[in-house]
Each structure stands twice: as C-alpha cells, then as structure tokens.
Amino acid sequence: MSARKALGYFLLLVFLTGYSVAVVSLADLLGLAGWGWQLLYYGTSGLVWIYPAVKILDWSHKADRRRL
Fold it and tell me: Is the pLDDT of residue 12 over 90?
C-alpha cells in the first residue's frame, strides 16, 4: 500500500469520526424539534458526508489511475 493511500484512509477515518461527533452533537439540539425537522436533518446529514469522502478517496487513489 502506498503512503498516499494510507494517508487517505487515515484522513477518511479522522473526517468520518469528526463528522459523526458533529452530527450527533447537533442532533442533541434537535431533540425537541418536530419529526419533520428531524427527518430533514438526518436525511441531509446522512448524505452530506459522501462528497468529501469521495474527494479524499479520489485524491488517495490518484497515483493508481496514473499507472493504468
């Protein structure tokens, strides 16, 4: 495994951990909100993490695509 891939996986782990902590902390504020707001929040936060994660993985696998 290349150093770039290892760093990418580490960054992904750090990002997802931080994102999860932030989402759960903010969800605490929505505890008394209606079910519609909670549905919107959890639906949005369940999709938002995908874009940065894909960017991190694209960056970490960039060297592999050059070799093909």
Answer: yes
